[in-house]
Amino acid sequence: MAIFGKRRGQKEGTTETSGKSPAPDAIKAILSEFQHPAHSKKLPDSGAVASLFADDAGIRIILDMQLELDETRDTAFAKAVEQRLTEAFPDHPARVAVTGERRPTKAAPRPANPQAKPGPGPRQNEGALQGIRDVKHVIAVASGKGGVGKSTTSVNLAVALAALGQRVGLLDADIYGPSIPLMMGTQGTRPKSQNKRWSPIMAHGLSTMSIGSLTDPDTAMIWRGPMATGALLQMMRDVDWGALDVLVVDMPPGTGDIQLSLAQRAPLAGAVVVSTPQDLALIDVKKAIAMFGQVSVPILGMIENMSTFICPHCGEPSAIFGEGGAIAAAKDLDIDVLGAIPLTMALRETSDAGTPLLAGDTNGPVAQAYLTAAAALLDAIPGAQQTPPTIRFE
Whole-angstrom Cα distance, residue 40 to residue 36? Predict the structure, then answer.
């Protein structure tokens, strides 16, 4: 067993850290003590170490078991690796996540019920997460394409919901391009791990989580769809969200494997679709609406983003992306319009600065538009209860 820099009084099999983050080579040396559970290669040589990151908050590793994923076996394997790393680096607790494609399992046959009436029944959700602890409503914010301001909308909509008295969480589901840490000002902050669960990062009154908070920001997530989906579902399941009224999920753009798997397996109360007024955006947002329809996830409403651009000099609005396109499309699709959000310089500047616009301004036209959309969303969520708002509407 490799021992690095053993000091007097240090336990056998532990590695000196001196308060510094463990070096990747030292971590890999510990991982080399393990063989991949499906073959004889050492873990670092097997290609299974998809992500390795260490800092003052601890060690975080993602193992990609590829087509060999076996939940019972690999969960036990991950725990063994965690325990050994924690022994080696006691000042930097380890968190090991496992992802990959699961082997299909045959469901036990259900006894026939002769009294059952034929009908569509509830939406099919085999293999779904068994709920997220103490979270009342999970809402997906989707767009069908990138570049329409979906993440900006997710952030400010979540802050607006919190301003209306809701307990809100924000999950960045864009594995390949996470932007929530930048927009929430949490870059460089790492979530703590306790009792095999992550604690969300608190920012601007929200509980937040992003793959960007778990990995090196310069690391490219070159993952297959099933692996990215597994990581996302694990973030939902293994985060101690606490008691939340709403968990806002900032979905990745498009209608691929991640979006479909999340819609099928997460307990979604519904989805909000975001589009700009232009026809090009509307083509793709209609695809997102169709995808949610195929898995019986209700559309709670549409938000028309960048409805106008408000000139910072004269204050006059300009319809630079067209006018009313998303609102007209929502009417044709029989979808409620939650709001129309104008584009301003302040909205762009606050997003880049890591301070959501609503965190500092509640009276401007953009802030009021988000608050109006948040109130309409609460009305559309089945069973949601509004609490008295903490912000006065003038």
Answer: 6
CA separation for the pair 264, 260 (Å, rounded): 6
Hunting for tokens 């990995």 — which residue is that? 215
Q: Break the chain down into helix, strand, coil percent, rounded to 5.
A: 35, 20, 45
Over 60: is that where the pLDDT of 294 sits? yes
Helices (H) and strands (E) in the chain, counts: 11, 14
For the stretch 253-267, what's the b/e string if a residue is b when 16 or more beta carbons lie within 10 angstroms of its beta carbon? bbbeebbbbbbbbbe
Provide mean pLDDT across the span 271-286: 78
Q: Is the pLDDT of residue 104 over 80?
A: no
Name the helix (H) or strand (E) containing 138: strand 135-142
Q: What pTM value is reported for the model?
A: 0.66
| Residue 317 phi, psi dihedral angles, 5° rounding | -80, 145
* Neighbouring C-beta atoms of residue 157, cutoff 10 Å: 30
Give the count of beta carbons closer than 10 Å to the beta carbon of residue 43: 21
Q: Position of tokens 């914010």? A: 141
pLDDT digits (tens, 9 = 90+) for 37-63: 877 788 888 888 877 878 777 888 888
Please determine, for residue 302, whether its predicted confidence score (pLDDT) is greater than 80: yes
DSSP helix/strand/coil, 377: helix
Tokens of 125: 């959700």
Rounded CA Rg of the chain: 23
Task: Name every residue whose Cβ is closer than 8 Å to that of residue 320 and which is 6 or more positions away in sequence.
Answer: 306, 308, 309, 343
From the CB of residue 107, how many other CB atoms can be counted at a distance below 10 Å? 8
Distance CA 293, CA 199 (A): 33
Tell me how far apart the alpha carbons of residues 183 and 108 are, in angstroms, rounded to a whole number: 46
For 336-362, write each residue's pLDDT tens digit: 889 888 888 888 888 888 889 888 777
Q: Do 298 and 270 touch, CB atoms closer than 8 A?
A: yes
Residue where the block lists tokens 């819609």? 263
- Rounded Cα gap, residues 394 and 161, in angstroms: 18
Contact between 163 and 374 (Cβ < 8 Å): yes
**The residue type at 170:** L
- How many angstroms separate the CA atoms of 280 and 230, rounded? 31
Q: Which two tokens stand for residue 83?
A: 């325990």
pLDDT in tens, 332-342: 888 888 988 88
